[in-house]
Amino acid sequence: MKAEDFYNILDSLHDGFYITDVRGITVWVNETSCKRLQRKREELIGKSVYDLEKQKLFSPSITRMVLEKNGPVSFIQTFHETLQKYIVNGRIVTDEKGEPRWIVTHGRIVDQDFSYSDQQNEVEAILHRYTQELRKFTVSQESSTDRNLLIGESLEFKKTLEQAEKIATVDASVLITGETGCGKNLLANYIHKLSDRHNKPFIQINCGAIPDSLLESELFGYRKGAFTGASEKGKIGLVEMAEEGTLFLDEIGEMPLHLQVKVLQLIQDKTYLPIGEVQLRVANVRIIAATNKDLRKLSEEDLFRSDLFYRLNVLSVHIAALRERPEDIFLLLQHFVKSYNNKYKMNRTLSKEVVERLQSYHWPGNVRELANLIERLIVMSETERIQLSDLPEHIIRKIEQPQNIIENPSLRKYIDSVEKNYILNALEKARTTRQAAALLDIPQSTLMRKIKKYNIQSSQYWRG
User: Fold this and answer.
1) Could you read off the pLDDT of 125-160 as tens digits, one per residue?
2) Are strands 349-350 and 385-386 parallel, antiparallel or unpaired?
3) What is the pLDDT of residue 141?
4) What pTM value is reported for the model?
């Protein structure tokens, strides 16, 4: 959403909105507040609420009360020009680093037909919704130079962001699904930044990158002398580090079963037990998990706890693979070219042929693969304009179509070319030759012979 659109929405409302910086200087006020205060917007912008309060334009200043309390305030405020009373709520809106950025107040006229508590609850709900919108605008503005910015205009991508924004308004566990490299960690961070926990820690751990024997101590910590080799000072776990914030469990499908039951306990009871301790600790954390695996299928095969899956799957959001939203590729190309040109002080551009080829590529590594490729092209290209010849072989190569059999009289050559392309495709998707062999449903030894036969040099995509 553009700033102009956001302010137009606030201007159309019957409730008053007043925004200041952290010094109490007015930065924006909507039309309703201007009418109630009987002042033009330009008469208010740039003025201190402390001075306006002294001038008895209103009393008390809710913004001042928020700043003094360093937290939300709800109070009855009087506008002295009309002697009208309003229920006014004030909140602090922070930036993505958790630092106070704005103070937002929202006021509604006191209605004698409803109780104060009912009206207060309604005002608080409205203010919560619009402060989240303001926070969303802040996050998008401050992340505009981020190489990992969530970018997309496709219906699939917009739906994903809308779901994430709804999820951010409630304090429940979340499951994010999607292929490797599609940005699950970015979406988790986005949800955190839009939530009420946005100014608290966002702690993440990749469950597949840490040995099973160490994962429990990383998550829950341990007391001193809990086991042989343990630190004499003990260890603070990530759960404790994430207190009042968000704990992001990436690749949760890789978590061993004996730890899954402890994560389930953390989600259900908000308690956990560090290694070597006998007293349960209480945790105030939100859990966001992510996976590129089918957890439902794994639970049916007893490889993942079904009770944990159902607990996580109450609120879920899926990120579509890049090949399923090709209209987003051009936007991402523009963003990454600009980003890496700025980073490396270059002025590279992509030729039309390169753009077309990249838009038709299936991107098994999704946005991460695209970002890494553009960075490599920006750095390694010999000319300012990047050409097809600068692209890696696996992207330049065109997969043969069946009609080529007619053009090519050698059936053996055609079969070999299809087999080679099929193997390359598996190697691009897999992390290891063992995984690639599993995808192809052939022994690893057979795959290694075929790699040698076709002289495939793809070490950047697979390991032994």
Assistant:
1) 555 555 665 666 556 555 444 444 688 888 889 899
2) parallel
3) 52
4) 0.63
Asked if residue 459 belongs to a domain, the reply is: no
- Does a structural domain hold residue 463? no
CA distance 191 to 175: 12
**Mean pLDDT computed over 432-448:** 82
Residues 339 and 198 in one domain: no
- Looking at residue 45, which CATH number applies to its domain? 3.30.450.20
Are 372 and 263 contained in the same domain? no
Q: Is 247:239 a contact under the CB 8 Å cutoff?
A: yes
Q: 387 is in which domain, residue-wise?
A: 323-396
Q: How many domains is the chain partitioned into structurally?
A: 4
pLDDT band per the 50, 70, 90 thresholds, residue 3: low
Same domain, 13 and 114: yes
Mention every residue, 6+ apart, whose C-beta is less than 8 A from residue 289.
173, 174, 175, 176, 248, 249, 250, 252, 312
